[in-house]
Design a protein that fits this description.
alpha/beta; Peroxisomal Thiolase, Chain A, domain 1; five-stranded mixed sheet; four-stranded mixed sheet
């Protein structure tokens, strides 16, 4: 039996940091209000002219270095992003070219905050069937370009960044033990960017209506997110015949600290086994989980043999979970 495992990780964040104090000068909000409702104290912001692929490539190179893999050895690149360099071609194509991964299939997926988990679950299929030997999966976003700085309920949430994982085949017990992906378009309008696509092409009217920014119905999403993240986490645990108490580290998507706390309470996962970096990174969408993963690997928080449970929820709406043994 062949499993797919992560051989190396890497991440990259913009230099500029935006604190809650900075937001107090821009919108009607306070540091206390933001912390109490989100757990966020700071987030990184890309500079003018910086593009999503820049950070994706930095993260990818670090992941390849850790894995001891040359770009030429990569035969699949999946970039999870909802903030691509441009509508076409894919951001993955730019990444492939800059890395020098010549003979390599490369494409984007748009699953928002669930993107990285969708990406590694997709790559897993290529690896297990032999269609790929080395896959590079990246979550990368510059959400600050799509944040409405007049909307205090959303502008404080999002940060920029990227992270990557190099995947290859592994022998049991190491590797992905169970994974699930889900989508429910019924709630698609709960978190979206209304304009800029074929439904509402860019126009003076859409710009004036501020429809090119993130719109979110946070109160409705909170309950849906908690319920689905809990349920899908339980499903992968059951599929792998693993008990919750056997999980070494739980890495949820960093959307809101209150969501994380609620999911952990329902799953009965104690705080000592939960990793969170939302206080200094914010919500980086598809980059959220892999940034956490890279921080844990590089700080030796993750050790060989550890059971890692990752779960996410995002626009679409999408949600999923991956259980793997390191």
């Amino acid at each position: 039996m062949v499993l797919a495992g992560i051989l190396g990780t890497g991440s990259a964040l913009p230099e500029k940091v935006i604190t809650n104090a900075d937001f107090e000068k821009m919108v009607d909000t306070t540091d206390r209000w933001i912390i109490e409702r989100t757990g966020i104290r700071a987030r990184h912001q890309a500079a003018p002219g910086e593009k999503t692929s820049k950070f994706a490539i930095k993260a990818a190179r670090k992941a390849l270095e850790m894995a001891g893999i040359l770009p030429a050895d990569v035969d699949l690149i999946i970039c999870a992003t909802v903030t691509p360099d441009m509508p076409m071609p894919s951001t993955a194509a730019f990444i492939q070219h800059e890395l020098g991964a010549r003979d390599c299939c490369a494409f984007d997926i748009a699953a928002a905050c669930s993107g990285f988990l969708f990406g590694i679950t997709t790559a897993e299929q290529f690896l297990k069937t032999g269609k790929s030997k080395r896959a590079l999966v990246i979550g990368a976003e510059i959400l600050s370009r799509f944040v409405d700085y007049q909307d205090r309920s959303t502008c404080v949430l999002f940060g920029d960044g990227a992270a990557a994982g190099v995947l290859g085949t592994s022998k049991p017990p190491s590797g992905i033990l169970a994974a699930e992906m889900h989508t429910n378009g019924r709630f698609a309008d709960h978190l979206c960017i209304p304009a800029g696509g074929t439904l509402k092409p860019a126009s003076v009217k859409t710009v004036e209506a501020r429809e090119h920014y993130i719109k979110m119905r946070g109160n409705e999403l909170f309950k849906i997110a908690v319920r689905n993240m809990e349920e899908v986490s339980r499903r992968v645990l059951v599929a792998a015949k693993v008990r919750t108490e056997d999980v070494s580290l739980f890495i949820p998507h960093q959307a809101n600290q209150r969501i994380t706390d609620a999911v952990c309470e329902r799953l009965k996962v104690d705080t000592g086994r939960v990793y969170s970096n939302i206080s200094h990174v914010g919500n980086t969408s598809s980059a959220s989980i892999p940034i956490c993963l890279d921080e844990c690997v590089r700080s030796s928080r993750i050790q060989k043999g550890d059971l890692i449970l990752m779960t996410a929820f995002g626009a679409g709406i999408t949600w999923g979970a991956v259980l793997m043994r390191w």
